[in-house]
Amino acid sequence: MNTEAILKASKLRLEFGGITVLFQISMEVEREEILAIIGPNGAGKTSLLNCINGFYRPQQGDIFFKGINITELSPHKIAKLGVSRTFQNIELYSGLSTLDNLMAARHIHMRRGFLSACLFFGPSQNEEINNRKLVEELIDFLEITSVRHKIVDTLPYGVKKRVELGRALAAEPSMLILDEPTAGMNVEEKEDMARFILDIFELKRIPIVIVEHDMDIVMDICDRIVVLDFGVKIAEGSPTEIKDNPKVITAYLGADEGELD
Amino acid sequence: MEDLTLPKLLRKNVENYGEKRIAERVKKFGIWQSYTWKECYERVKYLCLGLVSLGLRRGDNVSILGENKPEWIWAELAVQAAGGVAVGIFTDCTATEVKYFLEHSDSKFIVVDDQEQVDKLLQIKEELPLLKKVIYWDPKGMWGYDYQLLKSLEQVMQLGVAYENANPQFFDLSIDKGRGRDIAIICYTSGTTGNPKGAMLRHKALISNALVWAEIDEWNNMDQYVSFVPPAWITEQALGITGHLLSGIQVNFPEDTETVQENIREIGPHVIFLGPRLWENIVRTIQAKIFDTTVIWRSLYRLFLPIGKRRAKSRFAKKRAGYLWNFLYLIADWVIFRPLKDQVGLLRIRCGYTAGSAVSPEIFYYFHAIGVNIKQLYGGSEAGLVTLHRNEEIKSETSGQVMSNVEVQISDEGEIMVKGPNIFSGYYKDPESFSEKVQNGWYKTGDFGYLNEEKHLVVIDRMDDLRRLKGGQKFSPQYNEVRLRFCPYIRDAFVVGREYEDYVVAIINIDLENVGRWAESKRIPYTTFSGLSQKVEVLELIKNYICKVNETLPEWMQVKRFVNLHKEFDPDESELTRTRKLRRVFVEEKYEDLLNALYSEQEKFSVDETITYRDGKRSRFKTTIRIVGL
């Protein structure tokens, strides 16, 4: 198996006007790992994700995904290459049902043309059946069977988050990016989400990149952590290394190194 | 007949229906997947042979722990076909409870549902030396599990295929060896005191039970049934499994516990068993939907509902409604009741069962008004099905008439005793309890009740929860309270009877919201809860309702005097538990003076007490409350 990192970002620099959001960021995502990106508010975590999936174009630096330079590619092309993500503030088709939201994510795998789809019978029907099968398996996996035909706008927040995760998975990604998957959830919902993330990793064996504020979850489920502060990478390593890193403690607590411990 | 067993019934169904008829259906991946009798039989066969090749022998016990799924039925029949006994365990049991059941039942194997249950077993596996294999049917979430103890249902069936090649006759012979007197299942009963006891039931007890039931309610192979009563419970064993095999009822399994109502709508069952709470839920759903619908539908509903009620009333009274009413009902049915029932999936219901006599008469009445035939039954793990409402004999306050194969006797103490082929044949490893409970073939149910003039059984309460009156008569405070609480104007009721007094009295809590609304509509002014509760009109309202309840009760159980309490029972004052159950001993002590007044000739009682508010402040409260005699 190819052991080279699946994603490589080198020396990224992103500026909005005079503000530098990301500065000299280099990072790699291995083929089989759960990587967390953490940092205080405004550290540039979401901006980094937005660079990876093509919403932002960094002024400097390159991003390679599976050896392809994706720095200049548009979001839908990057998605087609196998990068799926969820958002901090849920971005679903709020007027569609759970099922339709998940089916919509399958479009990148649909091969049949417009005419064939109009006729429906034959290859188009088969394609639809196969896609539906895959989506139904995901619905079962994420335990959202009871809301299959509900309009997502009417669903509770925690369930919407799960639907969004389902949509990201429906694209059959080779890398999954989750932006604050447990934000605004209660303890029980957080535990469920953590379990789903671990299950996905176990089942699909794809790298998962998460941005997360809940340190308990990060420490429990992640293999490696990257810490950002004011657009600069200040640390990288295993959860135990990060926990004791004085720079990280300073960034989070704003205290002098000497005052701690 | 004598030697029929459940696996023999399965074999007969395969001969009769084969691939032509559906046996079971389960919703999976959003689609109803069906299994014909042939497919069902094949699975049972390979599962059985697989278990045998893993070491299952005749007379061994196998536990089953899982949600309602076809796999439950297959596993049970496979075990029985091999001459074993199936032990049902409820899915919400903790690991410690599961350990108790497995240990006590000496189970060699356990067939479980999913990861949740497997995890429980992995926790306790070291302490169960007898357990040979844990067989699961839903592999989700266990991709990384690597334990010697685990096997999937698929793997076991593959072993079965190999076993059949070596012993082609084995399965048929093994079924042939089964006898009606063999133990089929062990049902653990939730003992109120001590550990649960395992009631053993023979094949012939299960079959004789279902045979009579099927005849009364004319179950047939066109009937649809939605299964979600726990299969570890005798009701599901009698209806969903024995009834399924005996009458060919098609059993449908919901996709998920949360999708039950939706799935009922999709199936449109003919036969169903729902707990009292679920029946109430359906009424509430209908009322909410009516409230949200257009003015036209709403007015039609209001116009036609009284016609339905009128017809239900004459049906309960066993009178003819008359041509005009029947004609009007026909219109009402097509215009409003049928579409309404269709919306909640009850359009085709022929028998809707409930047990526990906790469905309020209003709800009972309502369902019969819209044409849903709901019936009460009474039975248990040990006694089987004892009574059932016959279609032409529906009475909301009774549990129905005694089944034709059962005898019922009321002991001198008023305990219900049952005799017949239905009853269990012993507690597993506990012959002492059995000889205590069963004497000369009569099983003592531990329930208190009586047979009324029309030979309907009325079940009052557990014997242990009864209180005595001066004359020695027994009565059940809870039975009274449940019935009083059916009234929308009564929030809580505390019913008391004393050993040295002749009659029963009650302290009532009015329902502020409903009584308040009623008072507004009658233009009765009030300011506070205590003020409203003491209004003459309100006392009259409550009095009328109590009179109505009294009519359904024997003389000595009737409430003779009551008060409307000036305040609500409150968990903050320890009168109720946090789950709103009365703390009887505490309340009885606290209101001793008031109760003494109720038992005297007094017509008024002055309250003078200190009230503690939530913030800890105290204040003195004085008022007078009226005592009402009936």
Explain what the structure shows.
The complex is a heterodimer of chains A (261) and B (630). Chain A is globular, with a radius of gyration of 19 Å. The longest helix of chain A is centred in the middle third of the chain and has 19 residues, at 123-141. Chain A is an alpha/beta fold. Chain A has helices spanning 45-52, 75-81, 98-104, 114-119, 123-141, 157-170, 187-204, 215-221, 239-243, 246-253, and strands spanning 7-16, 19-29, 34-38, 60-65, 68-69, 83-86, 175-179, 208-211, 224-229, 232-237. In chain A, strands 6-7-8-3-9-10 form a 6-stranded mixed beta sheet, sandwiched between helices. Chain A has a single domain (5-253), classed as P-loop containing nucleotide triphosphate hydrolases (Rossmann fold, 3-Layer(aba) Sandwich). In chain B, α1 (6-17) crosses α3 (70-81), α2 crosses α6 (153-166) and α4 (95-105) crosses α5 (115-124). The longest helix of chain B has 22 residues, at 295-316. Chain B has a 7-stranded mixed beta sheet with strand order 7-6-5-3-4-8-9, with helices on both faces. A 5-stranded mixed beta sheet of chain B has the order 12-13-14-15-16. Chain B is of the alpha/beta class and 630 residues long. The A-B interface holds A 99, 132-133, 136-137, 139-141, 143, 145-146, 148, 199, 202-203 and B 28-31, 140-141, 143-144, 255-256, 258-259, 262.
